[in-house]
Amino acid sequence: MVAIAGFLLAAAMSGIAPAGAQEAKPFDVKGTFRNICGFCHEDYGRKAGKGPQLMNSERTDQELFNRIKKGLPGRMAGFGSAFNDEQIGKIVMFIRNLKPGVEPQNP
């Protein structure tokens, strides 16, 4: 058992993946937005719902980033424990690329 654990540790450190290991899937921003954010930000954020419309927001990228990460007490949960900074940055890029009548795409 110790030998197997040692082999797996050595393989991980050398970049060799054990047989059957899968590569990490890319972050699906569109699916994440639809399933988590879409409850309040309708039509992928292109329309106001319980939350504001995000398409063409006057907020800066940093303001959007901070709002997603930290939330707004009583209004929006913070997602800093669910998403890392790179993922939050991709969500901001997704919001910035929203266009009326155009199907949103992953950044």
Broad structural category: mainly alpha
User: What is the string of SSEs from the N terminus onward?
Assistant: HHHHH
- CATH fold-level label: Cytochrome Bc1 Complex, Chain D, domain 2
Largest sheet: none
How many distinct domains?
1
Report what the structure shows:
- By secondary structure, the protein is mainly α.
- The chain has one domain (27-107): Cytochrome c-like domain (Cytochrome Bc1 Complex, Chain D, domain 2).
- Helices cover 45% and strands 0% of the residues.
- It is built from five helices and no strands.
- It has helices spanning 2-14, 29-37, 42-45, 61-70, 85-96.
- The protein is globular and about 35 Å long.
- Residues 1-17 have low confidence and may be disordered.
